[in-house]
Amino acid sequence: MKNIIATILVLALQSCGSTPTVVDMADERKAEYRKNGSYYIKDKKNFMNSFIGTWQYINDRTEFRITLSKKEKYHYTAPFNVNYYKDGMVIQYQKYENGELIYNSPVGTNPNGVIEEFGKLYMSFVDYEKRNTYLLDLILIKEPNKNDKLKFTLSSIILRNDPKPKRLEYWLSLGEINPGESFFSVPDNIIMTKM
C-alpha cells in the first residue's frame, strides 16, 4: 500500500513540475526559451486573433484566398535540443480563375509565425506549385467603419534592414525559376479583404 501511495505522490509532483513557464510572444525572446520544453511562447495579448479568418483578393477574373487559423500551445521539437511550446498560425490558400477553383493548397501542419506588435504578423509561406518556402509579411490595415484589410507581401530576402531582428529569417528554395517566369505562383504585394 505504501508503494502505491508513494507512486501516486511522485506522479502528482511530476505533473505539477511539468507546467511550462509562459512568456509573451510580443516580448523579446531568449534562446533559452527554446530549450528543454520548459517554456510556452504564448500570444498573451491575442494579437494573432485579428488575423484569423478568410481573406480575399480579386483581380479581374482571378481570385486568391488565404485562410488563417490559430493553433495554441503547439509542441515544437527539432534537433539540437530545440523543444518548446508556442502559439502559431497555419495557412491554407486557394486560387480561382473565372470562379472555378484551380488550386487548393494543403492546410499547414506546423504552426508558425511571430507577432511582435499588434497588426504585424511574420510567418513562412509554402508556395506548393513552385515548391518554395518564402517569408510572408502580413500587415493589418484597419479603417473606421470598413472591413479589415490585409497587406500580403512575400519575400525571399534573407537579410533585411532591421537593426535588431527578433525573428529567425530563412529562405529555402526547392524549385527552379525560368527566365521570364513569375517568381511566385500566387499574387504578391497585394491588399486583401476579410470575407
What would your notes on this structure say?
It is built from one helix and twelve strands; from the N terminus they run H-E-E-E-E-E-E-E-E-E-E-E-E. By secondary structure, the protein is mainly β. It has one domain. Strands 1, 2, 3, 4, 5, 6, 7, 8, 9, 10, 11 and 12 form a twelve-stranded mixed sheet that branches. Strand 9 and strand 10 form a beta hairpin. It is globular. The N and C termini lie far apart (61 Å).
Key phrases:
195 residues, mainly beta, 1 helix
Largest β-sheet summary: 12 strands, mixed
Radius of gyration: 20 Å
Number of domains: 1
What is the tally of helical segments? 1
Residues in β-strands, percent:
over 45%
Distance between the ends: 61 Å
Low-confidence parts: 9-15, 157-175
- Oligomerization state: single chain
Say how many strands there are.
Answer: 12
Overall 3D geometry? globular
**Alpha-beta classification:** mainly beta
Q: Would you tell me the overall average pLDDT?
A: 79
Along the chain, the helix and strand elements come as HEEEEEEEEEEEE
What helical percentage do the residues reach?
Answer: under 10%
